[in-house]
Write a structure and sequence with these properties.
Elements (H helix, E strand, L loop, with lengths): L15 H9 L3 E5 L6 H8 L10 E6 L2 H15 L7 E5 L2 E3 L6 E5 H10 L6 E6 L7 H16 L5 E6 L4 H7 L3 E5 L7 E5 L9 H14 L3 E5 L3 H15 L12 E7 L5 H8 L6 E7 L12 E6 L2 E8 L4 E8 L2 H9 L7 E5 L3 H5 L15 H10 L15 H13 L11 H8 L4 H9 L3 H12 L21 H11 L13 H7 L4 E4 L2 H7 L14 E6 L4 E5 L9 E8 L6 E8 L1 H11 L11 E9 L4 E10 L2 E7 L5 H15 L8 H16 L11 H4 L18 H6 L4 H7 L3 E3 L5 E3 L9 E5 L11 E2 L4 E2 L1 E5 L5 E5 L2 H6 L2 H11 L24
Parallel strand pairs: 1-7, 1-8, 2-5, 2-6, 3-5, 6-7, 9-16, 10-12, 10-13, 11-12, 13-16, 27-30
Antiparallel strand pairs: 3-4, 14-15, 17-18, 17-20, 18-19, 20-21, 22-23, 23-24, 25-26, 28-29, 30-31
Helix pairs in contact: 2-3, 4-5, 12-13, 14-15, 15-16, 15-18, 16-17
Length: 845
């Protein structure tokens, strides 16, 4: 039986007795200890001699493979042993345990597999959740399942939740016997500098100068935090170019520079190289993602340069897609990163953001369960026998919308049945230890090894320097064999050559059936932009638009080799809404798509429904007519299309009417009479809402019935607009309240202009209204017309709604002016007694 070794003098040692006492009493422990306190290595080793352990194992849960391996090696070193003896680890693609292993350091997915295969956790005495503040969805799931196990069958199971920054009281509240223990740190002082300017768009423009400054101002190795492998690559290239120059280019006494990348996509050997001490005469710059934020001590680090950003997966329930987004880190994460500089000596931290920006950052990281794709979690719960997540204890419950979407995906993949329980296929999928999409793809593919290779490529992130979207690009397959073998081992299939020979499109489509995409034709694209300026779609020919089976539009550069493909199986997209871009895809043939579509309708898994026969009507902007087609569709994809001779004329009229509405009423064959009728009706509707509305908004009501039998804009010349406008109108009331013409004393019937916003206008020559004493009225005598009294040349000499007042006031000045201009016309001194006329009359005046 192993015994507790002499532990190093680390700050956590002060509270170890309190931790042990709490566990002896059967309590759960929430241990809060700053970075470098020694909790990751000292606490598990301190439990080796615990009587309650009773020769059973201690599981230590780490969020990352690198941290798990490093912790196991450190504990084994303290015991004077090799990894795989008393201390071992289990991570994806690497296991080092033996018959005598007592402490197993495992990653979160491994713990979930152990729980699923042995819900009683036979032979396990305690589980330690390390770095729980990261709140990964796997850690939340593992804690929920562990609490369920303990409540049902293992009340003796001890739990320890450890973190440097944690809402400890909240965590303790979900543990039935939770007690909080805090350890003071002993970190060295870290001098912190902030930037005067926000981080630029290309962060290497700020990072490289910061490294130069640090090399000139400080001593020791440098740890640079960057969001992902892409940024690491760009910074590494720029630093390497300078490092190849003379050391004096950095400063007069700078040692030789060693640049080490550190991220999860690297091989274990490359990761280990970044952790090794720097040889004398060299100075190391480690370019790392947040993999180096916690549970990891890199010897020699005295300086931290922090971009303040990290790459996080963001799931959009509206599209069902998950993409990586670069987001600001929380204040807690920033403190974790800064603490890396003060592990072994006083250090310096350069933050590449301003103090003002920092004050607006969230205090803690947002739990992944609130934003993540919940399909993996839903499958695990289905295999656990839980269809409703509320049956378990959560720090943050899975959001309902995302949960329902996840269950919809699992039903589509035939992983769950109608009751929500896992099907045999779903249980096999869970055993593959991959996202349900990828697990289904591997198990359903005709060539499982090829599918394992595809899964390996899809799980690689930030593949450097490859801008083409083709999944089959050989550069994408470099270094994925080990990951593919791991998938193959879990699925029970034989390895083969990589890249595989079979076409990759049908394999990708098994995982992403709703993302099978069809190239949008140029004609259709013009149609999208024809109405009211339209949706601009692709940027002036620089992009090709594809429509996915779920209806979402995605874009691809015209320069990409896959841009001319009729169909694609899209594996990865990015961007929001209509500007979403294709990042990774494989071509499909029409035969492939037909086979997938027909398979989705007969219970073979994938897709939403099968092939449907759909009658469609659309307006062709080139032919300027409604086109009726009979289409075979799979979701939003058109597999076959031909004319539909049985299209309903009323439906055609509806589409034509909608096109008129989108273009505007000016496309209709307006004439003088129809325009006046429309104006008269608009006047009456404004006065009395009981009168019908004949605007664009009600076009389908008053015009559409008169379009039956028409299909094109040319056909519109046959529309009788007067009949359409007056359909259903009381003609007598219409003529009485809004007459088309008004008779004046000369006997003329003058057309009323109803188009003015000021009211109906009667433009009449002044001589024709001699003797008229009152202004004409409309709307049953409620509204006076606006009289435009005209000269013989038909120019207004007076505008009035008070004709009687005009005769007694302004007329005499008008008469004087008109006599001088038009001497041959009659301008009586007393217009009320004069005879109205339409003729030119020379009289003695």
């Amino acid at each position: 039986m192993p015994h507790t070794p002499t532990l190093p003098d680390l700050p956590v040692g002060v509270v170890l007795k309190e931790v042990l006492a709490g566990l002896v009493a059967g309590n759960d422990v929430v241990l809060v200890a700053p970075p470098g306190a020694g909790k990751t290595t000292c606490v598990p080793l301190a439990l080796l001699d615990a009587g309650w352990r009773n020769d059973r194992k201690i599981l230590v849960l780490e969020p990352r493979r690198l941290a798990a391996r490093a912790a196991a090696h450190r504990m084994a070193h303290l015991l004077g042993e090799q990894v795989g003896q008393t201390v071992g680890y289990r991570v994806r693609m690497d296991t080092r345990v033996g018959q005598n292993t007592v402490i197993e350091v495992v990653t979160e997915g491994i713990l979930t597999r152990m729980l699923q295969s042995d819900p009683e956790l036979t032979g396990v005495a305690a589980i330690l959740f390390d770095e729980f503040h990261e709140r990964s969805i796997h850690a939340d799931l593992a804690l929920a399942l562990t609490l369920d196990v303990r409540a049902a069958v293992r009340p003796d199971l001890r739990l320890v939740v450890m973190s440097a920054t944690l809402d400890d009281d909240r965590v303790a509240s979900v543990l039935p016997r939770g007690t909080v223990i805090r350890s003071e740190g002993r970190a060295f002082e870290v001098e912190t500098h902030w930037s005067d300017e926000p981080l630029p768009r290309f962060m290497e423009d700020a990072v490289v100068p910061a490294v130069r400054r640090a090399l000139a101002e400080t001593e020791g190795d440098i740890l640079v935090f960057l969001p992902g492998a892409g940024e690491i690559r760009r910074v590494e290239e720029r630093l390497a170019a300078t490092a190849r120059a003379q050391p004096g280019e950095w400063s007069d006494n700078t040692p030789a520079l060693v640049i080490r990348p550190l991220h999860g996509s690297l091989s274990f050997d490359a990761q280990d190289a970044a952790l090794q001490p720097t040889p004398p005469g060299q100075r190391k710059v480690v370019l790392a993602t947040d993999i180096a934020e916690t549970s990891l001590t890199i010897d020699g680090i005295r300086v931290v340069i922090d971009s303040g950003m990290r790459r996080v997966p963001v799931h959009d329930p509206g599209t069902g897609l998950t993409s990586l987004a670069t987001r600001p880190i929380s204040q807690a994460s920033a403190n974790q990163r800064r603490g890396r500089a003060g592990r072994t000596a006083p250090g310096v931290c350069y933050r590449l953001w301003t103090r003002l920006e920092e004050s607006h950052r969230a205090p803690y990281d947002r739990p992944e369960i609130l934003d993540a794709d919940l399909a993996p979690l839903a499958l695990e719960l289905a295999c656990w026998g839980v269809g409703d997540p509320s049956a378990l204890t959560w720090l943050d419950a899975p959001p309902e919308t995302a949960w329902q979407e996840a269950h919809g995906l699992l039903r589509m993949l035939e992983a769950v049945g109608g009751s929500g329980g896992a099907t045999p296929h779903g249980r096999r999928m869970a055993g593959v230890a991959a996202h349900p999409r990828l697990a289904h793809m591997i198990l359903a593919a005709d060539d499982p090894w090829a599918a394992c290779g595809v899964a390996a490529v899809l799980t690689e992130r930030d593949r450097a320097g490859i801008r083409q979207v083709d999944l089959g690009d050989p550069r994408r397959w470099a270094g994925v064999r080990d990951a593919a073998r791991d998938f193959a081992s879990a699925a029970g299939c034989r390895p083969g050559p990589l890249p595989p020979e079979p076409p990759l499109g049908p394999i990708v489509a098994l995982a992403f059936p709703e993302r099978v995409a069809q190239r949008v034709t140029e004609n259709e694209e013009r149609g999208r932009g024809a109405s009211k300026g339209g949706n601009k779609g692709a940027a002036a020919g620089s992009e090709v638009v594809f429509r996915m089976q779920n209806g979402q539009l995605v874009h691809c550069s015209t320069d990409d080799p896959l841009a001319r493909s009729a169909f694609l199986a899209v594996a990865s997209t990015g961007g929001a809404g209509p500007r979403s871009r294709i990042f990774l895809a494989a071509p499909l043939s029409g035969v492939d798509v037909r086979r997938l579509a027909e398979g989705s309708g007969n219970g073979s898994g994938g897709g939403s429904g099968g092939v449907e026969l759909v009658s469609t009507l659309s307006f062709d902007p080139t032919a300027e007519r409604v086109v009726a087609r009979l289409e075979e569709r799979w979701g939003a994809l058109v597999l076959k299309s031909g004319p539909d001779p049985a299209a309903d004329p009323m439906d055609i009229a509806h589409v034509l009417c909608e096109e008129i509405r989108s273009r505007g009423l000016h496309v209709l064959p307006w004439e003088k009479e129809s325009r006046q009728v429309a104006d008269r009706l608009r006047f009456l509707h404004a006065r009395d809402p009981e009168w019908p509305d004949r605007s664009e908004e009600t076009l389908h009501e008053w015009l559409e019935p008169h379009l039956v039998g028409m299909a094109s804009l040319t056909d519109l010349k046959r529309v009788d607009l007067v009949q359409a406008l007056l359909s259903g109108v009381d003609r007598q009331a219409f003529e009485r309240r809004a007459p088309a013409r008004i008779q004046v004393p000369s006997g003329s019937r003058i057309a009323v202009d109803w188009s003015s916003a000021d009211g109906p206008v009667l433009a009449v020559r002044l001589q024709e209204v001699f003797g008229m004493t009152r202004t004409p009225m409309v709307d049953d005598g409620k509204v006076p017309v606006v009289l435009h009294l005209l000269s013989p040349a038909h120019r207004p000499v007076q505008v009035t709604t008070d004709l009687a007042g005009f005769w007694t006031s302004s007329y005499h000045d008008v008469r004087k002016d008109m006599r001088g201009r038009y001497p041959k016309h009659w301008w009586p001194e007393n217009p009320l007694d004069a005879e109205p006329t339409t003729r030119t009359i020379k009289r003695n005046q």
